Amino acid sequence: MQLDLLPTRTGGAAENMATDFLLLQRYPRAGVSRFRHYGWRGPAFTFGYGQKIAVVREALAAVEPPFELCRRATGGGIVDHRDDWTYALVIPRGHPLEELRATESYRAVHEALAAALREQGVAAVTKPCGEAEAGDGAAAGPAGVCFQRAEVYDVVHERTGEKIAGAAQKRNKRGLLCQGSVWRPAAGAGGGAVDWDRFEADFVARLALMLGAEAQATPWPELNEDEVSGLVEQYASAEWTEYR
Fold this sequence. Notes:
Largest sheet: 9 strands, mixed
Strand content: 25-35%
């Protein structure tokens, strides 16, 4: 199997969320895993598909505008993208990792991420299960703002317990989409600056090993432009934002 490494792009909140979904739904190379790191044009927050908009707005009431707000196709809580390192990973249907329970695939990706941070001296580990056994809902993350509380198998600082990275998932007949975020201030809290280019290379190498795939830089796929623009418009609409 190949792991396609797509070029880094910067977009608005609706564009980024629509693109991630289309990489799950419409990728022209069937049976291939794909990964992308991307940036944000301005301050933005995203929130889980199942969250109520009233709860989200209440949680963000103290945040100074302007900022973009977009509902994701994946689950989870509110994610602050103002100073994060964001990525999306799609694993095709039928891959052994895609067939695992949500908590186990979540754990596998985060163990690769934590190991990449440890290469630069960051005391990063995955948060272990407590006394209660974690169910699939653990991967959805907290209902409030992400990075304020760590859930099972989130990446945390080994000594302080501070949350460093979280993710959210969507699984359908085409495969598994994992949208993840690393909070830069928490990753550098030990005093050392993280080389984010090196982190990406180390993270991708560990993902490829985990997937049994060869990582290969790949041009941006040819997606249907009308479908892309239509989905971006949907994700930017009040109907989508206020769906619940």
